[in-house]
Write a structure and sequence with these properties.
19 helices, 7% strand, elongated
Length: 504
Amino acid sequence: MKQLLIDGKSLTLEDIAVVAYDIDHKSPVKLAPKARAKMQESRNFIESKLGGKEPIYGVNTGFGLLSKVRIDNDKLDQLQVNLLRSHAVGIGSPLSEAETRASILLRANTLAAGHSGVSIALVEALLALLNKGVHPWIPEQGSVGACGDLAPLAHLALVLIGEGRAYFGGKLMTGAKALAKARLKPYKVMAKEGLSLINGTQIMTAVGTLTFLRADALAYMADLAGAMTIEALAGSAAPFDEDIQRIRPHEGQIEVAAHMRELLRDSQIMNSHINCDKVQDPYSLRCIPQVHGIVRDSLRHVRAVLETEVNSVTDNPLVFVKGKTGKIINGGNFHGEYVAIAMDQLCIAVAELANISERRLEKLINPALSDLPAFLAKEGGLNSGFMIVQVAAASLVSENKVLCHPASVDSIPTSADKEDHVSMGTIAARKARTVVENTWNVIAMEFFGASQGLEFRKPLRASRHVDKAYQTIRKRVRPVDEDRAFYVDMQAIAEIMRQGELLL
């Protein structure tokens, strides 16, 4: 049983995935001992200010435009409860269990950094939800991405105090009932803690992180799908020559070309047509390094943004304590613009994987562009073959184009114009999630078509790597000798991809 310790500054994207998908809760998460002292220090500083006359935003004042309203000391705890209740206005379908778990982990991690002024007990209460499998019901819509993800995080926080709704054992129930079944007690929020639970970018970052990790895996599988299509179409490996990449030395392009050379090495099919009269392949084959390469480089940037964000303090106001002195500063770390633009970039990059993949699939089925049977059908006319597989892929590509309009260029002033510029980061992350899912299915369709194309190259064999992928697919998806309901095959290949069986 591996234990993860959080301290606000050392969480990795892969750590998040482990916790998010740990449906049996076998990897407990705990607060690192070194984080406790700093948390306690900042909490002590907050409490030392509670009896004074100094207005502290969200601690002894109202919120947003109401920040000029001073709150009596005996009502400070109630202020925090009211905040959670009033901000829980989420809309739409709930986040997945994995996204919810990632959100809880990220919220606990940012508080563990010790600049929020919350108690150690609050972080431990959040981690108890993770470790006991209590998953708040969090509607995915309703956030504009500043002051962070207020509405969805409020739904998360309500469960902590025994309100709202939550899943336990796969069943939806009241938050109070879920806590009781998990043998947990409702947490009593204290001054500032309600605000610290909802002020930040954790929903967009959680959705963004899990989406990014799928996209990162997809980028490598897209190379393999392209290689399988090249084999099926008797294409050329010449465009992947090292010298070509050397004189346009983008890192991603060089990486992809090297990957393609490895994937296509020692192929009987490739060797069989070395002296053919074909001059050059279509762009969708020839330009794989250039297109897949910039996707790799874009994803590299997205990773860097997310790696910084998951270990950032996105609360407001922030507490800084040094020895016996300290300060409380109002700032804007809750603003989600970094994540918003990164997720829009991911949308555009991943959509290009779908664009070029669909074009390769079209080459496989079009007899005017290959020597393969029309629509890869063994008895065309009686059988339609892969005709509508390509149509379905085209529909997903078209949908992606709509979704790639950047959310981050929009901003609607909120809170009586106090919050006059917002990021729409959670919308960007949700769009990216859909684009990745669409592209995942397009790549699965290409694998489906390319593996069928290889049937017509027998007895010649593809390269070792491509043949291994072909054999993996054939364990679940038999060759197409006559028409059948192809959605079953496409779903099977998409699942093979999810299981990591095509990550070569």
